[in-house]
Write a structure and sequence with these properties.
Blueprint: H1 2-62, H2 65-72
């Protein structure tokens, strides 16, 4: 029966596609978790950079004015 053979082939392909779909779903979940982790790490680094800039700006403001004038000259 040719129809039985064709149905078996289609069923096999569907099974392979379902397995591949499951693999891709797991991979996507792992990649999404990595993106979330890296986004959090980036935000933390941006926050630390901002805090460091504020500390540097505060230190610059504490420098004597005469030093700033000499640097410009």
């Amino acid at each position: 029966m040719p129809n039985t053979h064709l149905i078996d082939q289609i069923a096999e392909r569907v099974e392979r596609l379902l397995l591949r779909h499951e693999e891709l779903m797991r991979t996507n979940a792992l990649l999404s978790a990595q993106v979330q982790e890296l986004t959090h790490e980036r935000d933390l680094m941006k926050s630390r950079l901002s805090a460091a800039r504020h500390r540097i700006d505060a230190l610059i403001e504490r420098l004597p004015q005469s030093t700033a004038v000499k640097d410009k000259a």
